[in-house]
Amino acid sequence: MRQPLESGHVVVARSAGVMRLPARFLLVLAANPCPCGRHSLLGLGCDCSPASVRRYQGRLSGPLLDRVDLRVQVEAVTRSELIEGASGAEPTARVADRVRQARERAAVRYEGTPWRTNSEVPGHELRTRWQVGPAGLREAERDMERGLLTARGLDRVLRVAWTIADLAGSERPGPPEMAEALQLRTGIARGVPAVMGGG
Ligand SMILES: [Zn+2]
Q1: What residue spans define the domains of the chain?
Q2: How far is the CA of 33 from the centre of ligand 1 (A)?
Q3: Which of 34, 37, 72, 128 could form a disulfide with 53 if both were Cys (CB 3.0 to 4.6 A apart)?
């Protein structure tokens, strides 16, 4: 799965020859936080030992997780949330409109290149042609030094930061957008509100 995640195509080699097939897809993974499934930030009702929680979460391989851009920890739905339903939620049409505008902004920026969306832009182009600025990079560099972020992870954080900026209508990502992208990747809060809360 790692190769198509990275390149957007899959290569099948058989005795008759080698075939290269398109395989661009959106991967959504969901997992329980622990063997019993009740481990949460609120710390309610889970009897699993810290070691067993670590072992359980360690079953997701590092190389696979390194290719996951957004990680969101969600809490169990409360009874009142179940009763109220999605009454306070933003209508899908409005979200779709915002996404369309963000994609248009990206398409204008990448005019004259082979790319249309942030996810398609190669890492070296993001690090040279569309730079986020030294202030925005500082936090990411710290994470790399602490071993929280790989080089591949940095490229992915840059793409997410551009998408956050496009969604907000900003010219380019600055420290807040980078902090949010880093938080979505590492799960470590940076003191900025996340646009993509639980849900
Ligand atoms: Zn548990």
Answers
A1: 1-30, 92-186
A2: 7
A3: 34
